[in-house]
Known about the structure:
The chain is an alpha/beta fold. The protein has 18 helices and 14 strands. It is 34% helix and 15% strand.
Amino acid sequence: MCKCFTSIFRLSFISKESCISKKKINEKILFNEINYKNYVMINMSTNFKCLVCDRTIGSNELALHKQQEPNGYKYAILWPEYNPLDNYCYDIDVPIYHSAVISKALDVRKVYILDEGKNISGSMKDYLVTKTIKLAEKKKKLIFNLASSGNHALSLARQTQMHGYYSLIFVPESSYKIKHLATYENTLIVALKDATYEDVYRLSNQINVSEIFNANVSNELLITGFQPVARRICALSPLPSHILAGVGNGTYLSGLTWSFQHTLTNIPRIVPVGMKGAFPFESAIKKNINIYKYKNYGVDKTYINEAVGSIALESYNMPQLCYALKISNGFPLGNLQNNDLRNAYLLLMNDKHLMKNGVIPEPTGIMGLAAAIKHKEKFSPDDILLISFTGNAYTSLESIKRLVPELMNDLSKLLSGKSNNVSFVNNQKIKNMVHIHKTISQKDLYMIIQNWMNTLL
Ligand SMILES: [Zn+2]
């Protein structure tokens, strides 16, 4: 199932159980076998730790416990205990580079750049969606509903199309990515006027139709879906000491931590990164609580608006991410503004090897690098950073044009070349989209959905 790359710049992942004995390992590939704990299957039941009441919850009591906890359905409050039956891996083509240019600029031992932009739909959300589809298939559901203002929705539209399934996606009408989404024929876009992400989420979660699978819930099951990328990181030598990524909802870093917990003796320190005044997770950590919500943004949004996927008043994954920080001895880095994102792009442009390989993230995706530059003093010369570029630039061209006009040349080359496995859909015809007001009655909403579903049969 796994690929072995030969380029020294493209470090390879080799899964211990499936590849080592079967394939000859290229000498150039650095593989850190000693870091693995034993993967031998242990017969354990599927339990979850409740991050609110600290009780162990069996899989048969999951639904009931989530109902009993006041925030049980709104926030990801459960952490899966190791379940070998869920230990799955699939082939991914997401490269990891090391950048001498960036490590020199940051004055650290080494910097790895993980380019999630090369994922199926161009972002790290693809792990979540792959796992979601697997869960839904078990329940024989082929239609999905999702509230998302960006990459999660792009991933669902793309992957359901690949499988011949369908998606019903709720977005704020102001979403930057709506044009891309609306080109998928298997997808109905429900665009909400004057709506925030919270409005969209609320409306999407009202849908209760037996044929439709809610792709927003069951985080306690979905976070195990990051094993393919986690294992690739585990195969690096030397291992990273810190993992930095911008936080949309935090599931990515929580998922990596969950996998590391069952793989590595020493978990790299998890460093979630956020924008100034829009990073409630950082406040939660300071207050030593695991659920926290802002009433308003702490700064004028025009200073932070380019990282659309990461500015939030609350995040549903907060309890899981707090736990990930606790077990990894991690820490948040915030306080970023648009100008910090620009500085990160300017440094990235100095690494010709990365540019040649089309490693250009969207503004939300470059936050990890922006934070490493801004908070350089937090790292020592012995540190080894893995910075994840969580999403591809092609989805946010207008933002990049505003932030770094000097990058547009490279970006145009990238989009016209074949190096990008994600098609550029901006000029395609818009297919299925309805515009509704957020106060729509449930009856009217169901009528829209039913009419759409009738066209699928
Ligand atoms: Zn509980």
